[in-house]
Every structure is written in structure tokens, then in C-alpha cells.
């Protein structure tokens, strides 16, 4: 009789897909990948076509790390409302976006590992 348990002895794999948009100086994308989340990274000025090409319609989680690109949140919701939106940034979220966010987190208050653990559930 074998005494191996592959489910509990290995990292948990999820079927979650996340797009991390903006610079990721705090390493949230890596922390999400460590939780088994498939991550697509977007940089530079993010446009609707980039979001579509990255698979935003099939994505479970949109994480924005650059508040200067907060206008991408309404674009994301225009494309799909079947995902969670999160900002992980030190700056305050503009008022026009707050109603469309599920979560706004300051990296100085919560580590990427803790955030990734919560988002991957």
C-alpha cells in the first residue's frame, strides 16, 4: 500500500487566471504564481486591444499596480463583469474607479504573499 498523497503534499493548483497590469516592484505576480495562479503581465500604456489580446474576457482577476492607468478598470468592466478587480498600489485610487473595484490594497500594509494567498482562494 502506497503512503503518498499527491494532493496535500504538493502546491495547490488553481484554475485561476490573473492579469497583473503595471510595474510589479512588490512581486505580487510571482506570489500569485506561487499559489498556482496563471499570470499574464502587462506593461507600458495599457489599451483595450492589449487587454483583449491578454485574454481579459476569460480572466478571473485583474490586478492594477499603476494608479495612473486607473481608466483600465472601466474598460475591463466594459469587456466583462465576471472577474474581480484589485489595485495593489501605494497611491490612492481615483474616485471614479472606487465603485468598480473589489479590493484596494496598499503594499505597505499587506505583503504580496498574504494578498496572493487570499486572492487565490
UniProtKB/TrEMBL annotation:
Pfam families: DUF7126
Domain of life where this protein originates: Archaea
Annotated InterPro entries: DUF7126 (IPR055550)
Protein name: CTP/GMP synthase operon protein
Species annotation: Natrialba asiatica (strain ATCC 700177 / DSM 12278 / JCM 9576 / FERM P-10747 / NBRC 102637 / 172P1)
